[in-house]
Amino acid sequence: MTLKAPALLGASLVVVLGTLAAAHLWTVPPFLAGILYGTGFGLLFAAFLRWRLPDGCEASTPSLRRRYLREFTPAMAAYVLGLFASLWLLKRVEEPMLRAIVALLPVPPVALVVRAVMRFIRDADELQRQIELESVSLATALVSMLYLAGGFLQMAKVIDIPAGPAMFWVFPFVCLAYGLVKTVVARRYR
To answer: Where does the sequence pass through the membrane (predicted)?
Structure first.
């Protein structure tokens, strides 16, 4: 069962407005507020995608969707746990080699997420595969051009963005761009 756009929009509003209200009534730690706002805006993005994607956009078999979710969900949960563990441990570890290992904790789960997505695309029917591949290709090209433009602006000293955050956000921006681009690509084939 998938949630419809109004349900996702409602959940988004509850989370964001609830966080705003809680911040005015109590002291909410910034880390928790960030997680709640991120969840709320993530739900808002999911509502937008559900609203804009045409019906039948995910034309895959139920068994393929189940396998995808069985592979994707634990890998994404491991990523979230690995990210929190990494951030927590980096505040407590000094030795450079150990810091490198701790910093890379979230990477193997992301590799498993990519594997799940690639297996989904490989086993989808021809039309769905075409939609997915065009969406991934366009999203990657758009983010690459943005990153390249940012690099030129950085070299010209027009902007000054620290390298760490800039590199960290490349993959999430590709995922975000993929979702947005897929709404356009999928409509072209329906």
So the answer is: 31-51, 72-90, 96-114, 135-154, 166-185
